[in-house]
Specification:
Length: 428
């Protein structure tokens, strides 16, 4: 227990630091809440694993943990690349520096395999389903070929028919388990052949557990992802459609199959070439993915229409450094009181506050808020009354007139539906 105490304390401190930055709306740091929260939480899980069985990733399995963090990157960038076709999620309020944004992405994506696998290890440390058995299954060559062929279909079909077959993409990595079985690597097929189903059950439950924490942390984040899964945009728990949580157990199974696969390759003649190939793939994927899936950047006061440099400096001098602060302060004390404190007219401040509300609403960003204003939408309340498809058409025409990137129809639906649910107030 004593050896796990430093990790527990470090985990709690990281989560607390992230919460403080989020609650106090500390500029820039409030946007990276996801990282300290998730890393801190994983430290707590690792400490709990150590308490359960006297061994954990940080205490006895550091090389495995390092490999897990590294191989998380190509594992998740595969799904990011597929999402260029699927368009099931996008990111908002990414950091303004491209390098800082890339670094945050790498640090966040590096936690995917630990997130998928730590919770199964925690269940194992608690002794859950440790001796669970089932009737042994015959794993024939035909079955292995069927698993591989099914996984290939799960890769190809979503890319050919993304609006219909999109859920299948999460099954694609599971096909690697057939290769793991043949190579002698840890394999779930072999577990079934030997009548052992405990690991599969722990992965399924652990994946669902990880997904719940994942989405909970993301729901509070500034820099976050937003799902636009067709047909499920109105029934969400946090940012995830309720049915989408069923994908996390499948993701955990795929994560296990993938990590077992690359772990075997690392022990073979591919030990040197494989990491280089993985890094090249990740770098290329990031160059293509980020400009297309990062739909807004952290907004600045200077981006709000009608605010000249002098006005921006007055707001900053009054302790209002960002649109988030302007939106929150104007609602808390009222436009009239705030205008006296800042030294701006009530009309000028009211307009700036409305723009701030729009800019922070579902991570829209200042350029999109300005576009809405040109379309006659000056507040979140007016946005709630809009018809999404008609509004998207107007915004697209206005954006193309100026050579700007127009918002996607799915984004506009997210904005309008959130405005209706929030009663015309800005929604995170």
């Amino acid at each position: 227990m004593a050896r796990s105490l430093p990790w527990s304390v470090a985990g709690l401190l990281l989560v607390a630091a992230g919460l403080w930055a989020l609650i106090e709306d500390v500029p820039v740091w409030n946007a990276v809440w996801y990282l300290p929260a998730w890393y801190g939480y994983l430290l707590l899980v690792d400490a709990a694993i150590f308490v359960g069985n006297g061994r954990s990733f940080l205490s006895h399995r550091r090389r495995e943990l390092a490999a897990m963090l590294f191989w998380s990157l190509p594992f998740w960038y595969f799904f990011e690349a597929c999402n260029l076709v699927l368009r099931d999620w996008y990111y908002v309020f990414v950091l303004r520096s491209r390098w800082a944004s890339a670094l945050m992405g790498v640090l966040a994506f590096a936690t995917v395999l630990p997130a998928c696998l730590f919770h199964a290890e925690q269940l194992d440390a608690w002794g859950i389903w440790k001796e669970r058995s089932c009737r042994p299954r015959v794993v024939s060559p035909a079955l292995r070929r069927a698993v591989g062929a099914g996984a290939l279909c799960c890769l190809v079909l979503p890319l050919l028919a993304p609006r219909v077959a999109f859920p299948l993409i999460w099954f694609a990595p599971i096909g690697l388990d057939a290769i793991n079985y043949r190579s002698g690597s840890p394999s779930l097929l072999r577990d079934l052949e030997q009548g052992r189903c405990g690991r599969i059950l722990r992965l399924l439950v652990g994946g669902l557990w990880a997904g719940a924490i994942w989405e909970l942390i993301n729901s509070f984040a500034r820099c976050k992802w937003i799902y636009t899964v067709p047909g499920f945009e109105g029934s969400k728990l946090f940012e995830m459609p309720a049915a989408g949580f069923l994908g996390f157990p499948i993701l955990a199974i795929g994560a296990f199959a993938f990590f077992s696969f690359v772990d075997n390759l690392r022990a073979s003649g591919w030990k040197r070439a494989l990491p280089i190939a993985a890094l090249v793939f990740c770098a290329a994927a990031d160059l293509v993915v980020e400009p297309r899936t990062a739909r807004s950047r952290r907004p600045l006061l200077a981006e709000l229409q009608g605010l000249n440099p002098t006005t921006v400096e007055r707001l900053r001098a009054a302790g209002i450094p960002t649109p988030e602060w302007l939106s929150r302060r104007s609602r808390k004390v009222g436009i009239g009181v705030l205008s006296e404190r800042v030294g701006l007219s009530t009309s000028e401040l009211a307009q700036a506050a409305s723009q701030s509300d729009l800019a922070i609403h579902k991570g829209m960003g200042a350029p999109r808020a300005a576009l809405l204003r040109r379309a006659g939408i000056g507040s979140v309340a007016q946005l709630a009354d809009a018809e999404p498809d008609a509004l998207c058409g107007r915004l697209t025409a206005l954006a193309e007139e100026r050579g700007e990137d127009p918002p996607r129809a799915a984004e506009v639906r997210v904005w309008v539906l959130a405005a209706r649910r929030s009663g015309g107030k800005p929604a995170r």
